[in-house]
Amino acid sequence: MIEVHLGDITRLQVDVIVNAANQHLQSGGGVDGAIHRAAGPGLLEVCREIGGCPVGEVRATPAFNLPVKRIYHTVGPVWRGGSLGEPELLASCYRQCLALARREHMRSIAFPAISCGVYDYPPEQAVDIAVAEVRQHLDGNCQLQRIVFCCLDEMLDRLYRQKLGVSEER
Fold first, then answer.
1. Does 157 participate in catalysis according to the annotation?
2. What's 9's DSSP letter?
């Protein structure tokens, strides 16, 4: 049910991919830029119409040219030491995406490592929060059959695998 994938989130065969977006929902770097490039210009137009997304919340869009049903855009917190609510806001990103997937009857979802890029969230702490939120959601009445943590680098891949107790795929 929970998988770890090292590679490009835009190529995964899931119902939903989660975009680690910025508050303006404008194309940025990293995962956000890759998703916008792969989805095509229609995504930016829809994101402009939405107008933005507060930290810790989620907004959904069509997938356009991506091989998924939906894109969930969530805005993770910028790390400022952890005493300004960053853990709660990051946990909210995962909770809100999972709740939306449930409301929309999605069966599979892929998450990037939210806030671990330019937002400087400590990867070990971010992975702990991500895994805890997903496990808690799965303990409830959940129709999700597949949850993927998609990692851009081997360090994050290793952290997720260690936390989940799964072996490396090779």
1. no
2. G
Nearest to 129 by CA among 75, 87, 98, 158: 87
Of 8, 32, 128, 157, which one is the catalytic site residue? 32
Domain 2-164 indexed as CATH 3.40.220.10? yes
Query: Do 98 and 72 contact (CB within 8 A), yes or no?
Result: no
| Domain residue limits, the chain | 2-164
pTM: 0.95
Any residues with CB less than 8 A from the CB of 31 and at least 6 apart, and which? Answer: 9, 19, 20, 112, 117, 152
Helix or strand (DSSP H, E) at 17: strand 16-20
Instruction: Give the pLDDT confidence of 46-102 residue by residue, as tens digits.
Output: 999 999 999 999 999 999 999 999 999 999 999 999 999 999 999 999 999 999 999
